[in-house]
Amino acid sequence: MKTPFPLLALVCLLIGAGCSTPCSVAKLEGQGTRHLFDAQYDPVWNAVLGAVEMNDLRVVQIDTASGHISARRVMGVTTFGENVSIWVRAVAPGETEVEVISRRTGPPVMPTPRPEKSILQTVADVLT
Prior knowledge:
By secondary structure, the protein is an alpha+beta fold. It has one domain (about 20-125): 2-Layer Sandwich (Alpha-D-Glucose-1,6-Bisphosphate, Chain A, domain 4), CATH 3.30.530.50. Helices cover about 35% and strands about 30% of the residues. The chain has helices at about 5-15, 20-25, 40-55, 115-125, and strands at about 35, 60-65, 70-75, 80-90, 95-105. A hairpin with an 8-residue loop joins strand 3 (about 70-75) and strand 4 (about 80-90). The longest helix is centred in the middle third of the chain and has 14 residues, at about 40-55. It is elongated, with a radius of gyration of 17 Å. It starts with a helix and ends with a helix.
């Protein structure tokens, strides 16, 4: 029995669609959702670490020197998982920028909201 080429191409496309690794997402610095907080670097850094945990993410790697956090959401009912990168940067005294970007680890199971806005909102909530 011959497998039709279009069906095989579609299966390959679905398998590869949206795939990411923590390293591939970490290379997307500058392409994420950003928010500027009127707070010193250390309180924002701590709020980001809390927001990661509160948004059901698991820390994969922390690089305090560059202000980068790599995190992952495990597979669930609505997703095969997500890789998330977060950068925390001191912009000026009393101002800190947080950038968040995420990519799915596999094809989407069903439409789900991206975690960027939720993480940034959680950081804002923790800081207030």
